[in-house]
Specification:
The strands form four sheets. A ten-stranded mixed sheet has the order 1-14-13-12-11-10-2-3-7-4, with helices on both faces. It is globular. It is 39% helix and 15% strand. The chain has two domains: 301 residues, Rossmann fold (3-Layer(aba) Sandwich); 79 residues. The termini are far apart. By secondary structure, it is α/β, with parallel strands linked by helices.
């Protein structure tokens, strides 16, 4: 017999955790949390990775030869599941690290590889800085902000973002939520690695923590590779501090990624009874996966909720881990893995559960038990956050 799970019960588990004031919570947000936002033209406000890859391919094609051929060579050298712009950018940087001034790689010399890297970064940055007239009246990230503001917590919420855009910052600022991102100062706020490891350098528990692990369009690098610093300023289309990979930068540029990866590791291993909620994340970043899965093995108090927009591949890393790790819950449209057991969705009492599922689960038909979970859509997850925030705000 196929096992079934009641979405009412699983949603309530998550709601209870999000409503608790003493439960430490961390969140890991991937590209899906940004591309879920619809612009005024009904297109994604921020393109998904596939669309971003297409834009970068077109931009490189505009450079003509030998750059278009180099893109194809690099593309063909990658496994099918890794053919995206972030992997290509990492590959370009690896070639830059290895190449000598007189050598060529993928048909490009060192200066040409730098040109290719710059074009890709500039295109990414341009795509993730939408014009103001494309922004919808409200962002789902504002519900995240209301939840952070209204639910009084004993420990601050730690948000780890893999996105280069500023949608989280906009959402939190609109809701007047104070947050700390590792930068200090006023004229040219600079990244302070010590603030991620020393509690006495961090603001109080009412401040949310935002760690942009793959860089940001608001970051710039000043000075030499050895003695430079990373500063935060206005959004820039240079793409200078887009960091999709740990392995491809000089030490000064590596520092934010390394510090934030260590922060994620420490948060997940040193705190008891902590919840990590993953949204819009495809579990395709090896370095982050290692941190999360190792923490699940070493910390008996860690529970991870993976909210998936699509049903994950049955032979992918997430499903393989969830089949053996009881503390890793996978909640997707049509299936779930809970307590290392796989099953489908079935509402126990659809007639009396419709209100509790509104916006979070779509019944196939009224009064019938089957349907699809919507929590993997960041808009729906923020609907849940907003409902908790509104209850707390009135409570």
């Amino acid at each position: 017999m196929i096992r079934t799970f009641d979405p009412v019960a699983e949603i309530q588990k998550l709601r209870d955790h999000l409503s608790s004031n003493d439960m430490p919570i961390a969140m890991l947000f991937g590209a899906g949390t940004s591309c879920a936002v619809k612009a005024t033209d009904e297109e994604p406000l921020i393109p998904a990775v596939a669309a971003l890859t297409e834009s970068c391919a077109a931009a490189v094609q505009s450079l003509e030869e030998p750059f278009s051929s180099a893109w194809k060579l690099i593309w063909d050298s990658l496994p099918a599941e890794r053919r995206n712009v972030e992997e290509i950018l990492s590959s370009v940087r690896q070639k830059l690290e290895a190449i000598l001034a007189s050598d060529t790689s993928a048909g490009l010399n060192r200066d040409q590889l730098k040109t290719l890297e710059a074009k890709i970064k500039e295109t990414i940055a341009t795509e993730v800085i939408p014009s103001e007239d494309r922004f919808p009246p409200t962002l789902p990230h504002q519900a995240l902000g209301r939840w952070l503001r209204n639910v009084q917590r004993e420990t601050p919420v730690e948000i780890f973002s893999l996105n280069y855009d500023t949608l989280i910052e906009r959402g939190l600022e609109t809701e007047w939520v104070p947050f700390f991102d590792g930068f200090v100062g006023a004229h040219q706020p600079f990244f302070s690695p010590g603030s991620l490891v020393r509690a006495d350098m961090l603001p109080g528990r009412r401040w949310a923590r935002l760690w942009k692990m793959h860089g940001s369009v608001t970051w710039q690098h000043l000075g030499s590779p050895e003695e430079g610093r990373i500063i935060r300023g206005p959004e820039s289309k240079s793409g200078e501090m887009i960091l999709p990979s740990l392995r491809k930068y000089d030490e000064s540029r590596k520092q934010p990624y390394v510090s934030m990866l260590d922060r994620l590791r420490n948060i997940l291993t040193e705190r008891n009874d902590i919840i990590l909620i993953c949204a819009g994340y495809s579990f395709s970043d090896q370095h982050i996966n290692e941190v999360v899965f190792e923490a699940l093995e070493s910390n008996p108090g860690l529970h991870v909720f993976a909210l998936c927009f699509d049903d994950p591949s049955t032979d992918g890393i997430l499903v393989r881990k969830a089949r053996t790790q009881r503390k890793l819950l996978v909640l997707s449209q049509n299936r779930a893995i809970v307590g290392a057991s796989e099953g489908t969705w079935k509402v126990t009492d659809p007639k009396h559960s419709a209100n509790r599922l509104d916006g979070l689960f779509d019944l196939d038909k009224p009064d019938e038990p089957s349907g699809r979970l919507r929590l993997g859509d960041f808009n729906s997850f923020c609907t849940l956050l907003g409902s908790i925030a509104d209850q707390s705000g009135h409570g």
